[in-house]
Amino acid sequence: MGLEIKIRPVELADVNDLYEIHKGANNIAGTLQLPHTSLEFLRRRAENPPDGFYNLAAVCDEKVVGTLGLNTTSRPRRKHVGSIGMGVHDDYAGQGVGTALMAACIDMADNWLNLIRLELTVFHDNPAAIALYTKFDFVHEGRHVHYAFRNGSYVDSLAMARIRPGFVNDLSAN
Hints:
Layout: E1 6-9, H1 15-23, H2 25-30, H3 39-47, E2 53-60, E3 63-72, E4 81-88, H4 97-111, E5 117-123, H5 127-135, E6 139-150, E7 153-163
Parallel strand pairs: 4-5
Antiparallel strand pairs: 1-2, 2-3, 3-4, 5-7, 6-7
C-alpha cells in the first residue's frame, strides 16, 4: 500500500522539515536551490510569503516530505498564468508525493484561481520530473541552453506548460 499523503498549506512550524528537504542531494540537483540553504532563510519565507504565492506541503505521518510553490502575478496581462516550483524529500521520491502535490496545485489553479496556463522549467536530465509533468498534460515548449550552473557545469532546462483543458481562446474576436 502507498503512502498516506495529505496536502495543506506550508506553516511556520514546518521549517525544520523544509530544511531537511532542501538538504537533499537530489533536491539540490533538481531545483535552483543552492546547497546550504539556511534555516533562517526558510523561516522568513514561510513567515512572510509574497502576495500571490501559494505554498503547499505534502505531509506523511505529520512530516512534510514535499512542497510545491505556485506563483501568480497581479500584472494585468499575466493574471491567467501561474508558475510552479516543486521539491520532494530525497527519501520520498517516486512514492506519489509529486503526484499528490501536482493534483492539488492543478485543482487550485483550475477551480479556485481561474488560471488558464501553468508553466515551469525542469532540467533536461530529470526524466522522473518530466514524466510527472507530462502525466498532468504539460507539454514541452522549448529548451533553455545553459539555463543554470550546477555542480561545476551548465545544464539545460526545458520549458513546459499546461493550458487548462477545455479552454478555447476565441481568436475570431481579434
